């Protein structure tokens, strides 16, 4: 595998905490300590920042997330609020501010159906908001299954299933049970804070990155599975011995099957299914992922990594060094 | 008095701490004054940055209370990791998190940003050692704490340069 840097996006004046691709893969949103959101697009082969949104939050913006249609952007902040930005006449405006969390909001994610927005906070709760109409979000559930700060929420790619990762070292899974949402499984195994989680394309596996310097891969066991295992998410492999500081983010590419991680040792790493293992990595019980690349990506901690959803092999990373970088991965094997 | 500042609550409690002698200033050598000679950051330099931090409840420095010591600092120039251990004056000290936060902020502001700082309680010296270490090492919670104006003001007071 060969990895080349294709762009270095400079403009933020403080650490960059998050970067997020729009679903068409054409726009990258970034945010961080400088309380601004920047939107970057490619013009004449150059990545340029055409929009800066800077009046939504009074403290650090921790994460941004796009709605599936690309007309809305959710940003969450240490100021305890979530802003939903809506595109009107080609410009993004903060159309609604969602309040309710008692402390910093760490993550906000639209569901792939666009119906729900999930948020989580240092107040240990996960909130699920349902979109009624434009600018109308109603909180339909507050989940308090975690015992500590909740770091990250991510939706299943195809179903209305939500996962959350926490300072309490666990990952919780939630589903709609008709009258309310319920936490129906808790996955434990990490020895410290779980900073980030990412589903694979089918949503049958999840990868998690932790302060314990490992990645873990979890497999979903459906009700009535042939192995006779009760419905659950079980850890099927641990990727260890590579990261030397906390893993702050993971991203699982739905086009190539590659996994990227961002680490406190300034490195960006890419993991690929082991070509020696002669199995279909989508159905294997325990696919073996090996490190295919390790790059000194940033001068400081790598906070975020995101695969482009439409352009195979394009990866964005964001760091404490105030820089966002774009990478292109060549010569990788597309799994079976 | 209880201070609840979003990064744990703090209660004053150690009324009569033991006071220890302080070390002499490091003599400045000719080599250190020569700009042509590279002078890497060493444990003594890191110790000098934190020894005069004020204790939150007493008009004493962390060095005078033996909370920090040069032998509890290690610097790895290859990985740029600086490890600092600190020793709360009593094993149930509720100020331990605040003291740790002051040490971290002082080092973050003084050292080049490429340095990684691993800060922890000297093993066995606090009842809540694991929980405090985890909180002090969580950069997201540290960043959020430092955006709290009340807590920042307390930290700034503790790390202010001594007046002579």
TrEMBL record, chain A:
WD repeats: 9-40, 54-85, 98-130, 143-175, 187-219, 295-329
Cellular component annotations (GO), alphabetically ordered: cytosolic [4Fe-4S] assembly targeting complex
One Pfam family linked to the record: WD40
GO biological process: iron-sulfur cluster assembly
Record has Repeat as a keyword: yes
Keywords: Repeat, WD repeat
InterPro entries the record matches: CIAO1/Cia1, WD40/YVTN_repeat-like_dom_sf, WD40_PAC1, WD40_repeat_dom_sf, WD40_rpt
Role noted for this protein: Essential component of the cytosolic iron-sulfur (Fe/S) protein assembly machinery. Required for the maturation of extramitochondrial Fe/S proteins.
Stated family: Belongs to the WD repeat CIA1 family.
PANTHER family per record: CYTOSOLIC IRON-SULFUR PROTEIN ASSEMBLY PROTEIN CIAO1-RELATED, WD40 PROTEIN CIAO1
Protein name: Probable cytosolic iron-sulfur protein assembly protein Ciao1
UniProtKB/TrEMBL annotation, chain B:
Keyword Calcium: no
Key word Chloroplast present: no
N-terminal signal peptide: none
InterPro entries noted in UniProt: FSCA_dom_sf, MIP18, MIP18-like
Domain MIP18 family-like intervals: 45-113
Gene3D superfamilies: 6.10.250.1280, Fe-S cluster assembly (FSCA)
GO biological process terms held by the UniProt record: chromosome segregation; protein maturation
Gene Ontology CC annotations of this record: cytosolic [4Fe-4S] assembly targeting complex
Protein keywords: Chromosome partition
Domain of life the protein comes from: Eukaryota
Protein family (similarity comment): Belongs to the MIP18 family.
PANTHER family cross-referenced by the UniProt entry: CYTOSOLIC IRON-SULFUR ASSEMBLY COMPONENT 2B, CYTOSOLIC IRON-SULFUR ASSEMBLY COMPONENT 2B-RELATED
Protein name (record): MIP18 family protein galla-2
Lineage of origin: Eukaryota, Metazoa, Ecdysozoa, Arthropoda, Chelicerata
